[in-house]
């Protein structure tokens, strides 16, 4: 049975979505901050790979020399499709990285001790003066 590359990649994508769903929902709430940090790192790797696809001229090669092109007659279409998908990946991963760091910062701020309010400071100062 000869499967097309699109079929194989679709199966891999669906399986990774299922595994990711169960991994995220299986994590205890105490480990959500480290999980966010790891997903930010993975998004950073995806951004680098997507930028390599979007701007292959930097590497001195086109997309088809780096990736297998199943249909050489559609090389131009394949390159532009890969560049559009790569650009979308760059934008979405950049949003994910920014949001992930913002949420991680908020989560870590919850563990910092809170500064006493002005009324508490005044009461402590008055008590110390007695």
From TrEMBL:
Record has Cell cycle as a keyword: no
Source species: Blastochloris viridis (Rhodopseudomonas viridis)
Protein name: proton-translocating NAD(P)(+) transhydrogenase
Keywords from the named record: Cell inner membrane, Cell membrane, Membrane, NAD, NADP, Translocase, Transmembrane, Transmembrane helix
Lineage: Bacteria, Pseudomonadati, Pseudomonadota, Alphaproteobacteria, Hyphomicrobiales
Record localization: Cell inner membrane
One Gene Ontology CC term in the entry: plasma membrane
E.C. number: 7.1.1.1
Coiled-coil stretches noted in the UniProt entry, renumbered to this chain: none
């Amino acid at each position: 049975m000869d499967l097309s590359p699109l079929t194989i990649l679709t199966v891999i994508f669906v399986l990774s979505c299922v595994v990711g769903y169960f991994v995220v929902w299986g994590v205890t709430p105490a480990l959500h901050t480290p999980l966010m940090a790891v997903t930010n790192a993975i998004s950073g790797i995806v951004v680098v790979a997507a930028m390599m696809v979007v701007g292959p001229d930097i590497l001195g090669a086109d997309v088809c020399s780096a990736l297998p092109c199943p249909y050489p007659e559609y090389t131009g279409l394949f390159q532009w499709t890969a560049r559009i998908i790569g650009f979308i990946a760059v934008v979405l991963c950049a949003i994910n990285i920014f949001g992930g760091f913002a949420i991680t910062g908020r989560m870590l701020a919850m563990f910092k001790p809170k500064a006493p309010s002005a009324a508490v400071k005044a009461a402590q100062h008055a008590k110390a003066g007695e």
